[in-house]
Amino acid sequence: MKVMLITGASRGIGAATAIAAANKGYTVCVNYRTDSTSASMVVEQIQQSGGKAVAIKADVSIEAEVAHLFSQIQATIGKVDVLVNNAGILQTGNIETIDSDRLRKVFELNVFGAFYCAKEAVKCMSARYGGAGGSIINVSSVAAKLGSAGEYIDYAASKGAIDTMTIGLATEVAEQGIRVNAVRPGVIYTDIHASGGEPGRVDRVRHSVPMKRGGEPVEIANAIVWLASDEASYCTGTIVDVSGGR
To answer: Is 23:30 a contact under the CB 8 Å cutoff?
Structure first.
């Protein structure tokens, strides 16, 4: 049974991906930073459906915690076969509201965290280290293409970095048996908007989406699970927009 680590999996897209992956037979690590109750609820839902999952706390913006996270996973459920870099934060506001503290928090989690996790995943998966290969899926955002003017250009920039990292890392590790891809969600009904300061954002902007609606977390989860699967075996360096046409 393959092991999938999903960072920031206590809610939203991460939680939906954990459930979808467990339904496909993965053993899932539900990583969380602070919300142990929600993470435990995700694990319980998976277990009640006959799946296998564990919740492990780690702040992936801290390199030492990421290394410990991978060690804990290997000790409890085995080496990571699939990494989903999902953990992320945003805050709303135009350029005048952005200060060094906000920039640091956004980039440390959204970008540094993805790099730290990818580094440890490569050491688990790479044929160079005796691994059997694997898959890394980065959760980007359509904001990387649109820029999110007047809302959160720092978040958009962090996701632009993730797009570039996806392409570069895919090339770097292709011969090591590792595929690296990304999904770019559009406006999705998750708690990230509330935590960023605007809980009603999806309904405010959904009319700008060609499909005229916000997306559901499971719609992103299904794309992630497909990219992780053998059905996507010839996909690497690919970025899939799941954004209702934006």
So the answer is: no
Domain locations along the chain: 3-88+107-141+157-185+218-242
Does the pTM surpass 0.85? The reply is: yes
Where the chain has pLDDT below 50, the residues are: none
Query: Which string of DSSP letters, residue by residue, matches 37-103?
Result: HHHHHHHHHHHHTT-EEEEEE--TTSHHHHHHHHHHHHHHT-S-SEEEE---------GGG--HHHH
The residues annotated with a catalytic role in the active site are: 155
pLDDT tens profile 123-169: 999 999 999 999 999 999 999 999 999 989 999 999 999 999 999 99
Complete edge-to-edge strand list for the sheet that includes strand 134-139: 52-57, 27-32, 3-6, 82-85, 134-139, 178-185, 239-242
Q: Which of 110, 180, 185 lies closest to 141 in space, CA to CA?
A: 185
Architecture of domain 3-88+107-141+157-185+218-242: 3-Layer(aba) Sandwich (3.40)
